[in-house]
Amino acid sequence: MTKQEFLKKVESEKLNKGEYSIIIGKLSDADAPLVLGCVFDQRVWKVYETRARGGHFIIKELDDESEAFDYFYKVVLSQHNRPNNY
Fold first, then answer.
1. Which structural domain range is residue 23 located in?
2. Position 85 in a domain
3. How many domains does the chain have?
4. pTM
5. Are 21 and 35 in contact (CB under 8 A)?
């Protein structure tokens, strides 16, 4: 799916992201806790996460926007399906 399709799908499904924020289009600040993100950087799509104590790490790099947002949706969905989310 494209970036726009992803945004519409997440909004329409009202996914529970727990404590995470979603950031698209830029890398979050290294100090920003609990972020799931997707950014086009250095000619690849990077799906990333930050931890509660800051610092981000790349979960996966993909060449294609559609593949990147399909994968990113699965990452967000896994957070939604996690036990103990309110």
1. 3-77
2. no
3. 1
4. 0.85
5. yes
Q: Which helix (H) or strand (E) holds 39?
A: strand 35-41
Q: Is residue 18 part of a domain?
A: yes
Q: How would you class 72 by CB atoms within 10 Å of its CB: exposed for 0-12, middle for 13-18, buried for 19 or more?
A: buried
Q: Provide the residue count of the chain.
A: 86
Longest Cα separation, the chain: 37
Residues 21-35 have pLDDT tens digits of 899 998 877 677 889
CB 50 within 8 A of CB 22: no
Alpha helices by DSSP H, the chain: 3-13, 65-80
Domain membership flag for residue 70: yes
Taking only the tens place, the pLDDT of each residue in 31-53 is: 778 899 999 999 999 999 988 77
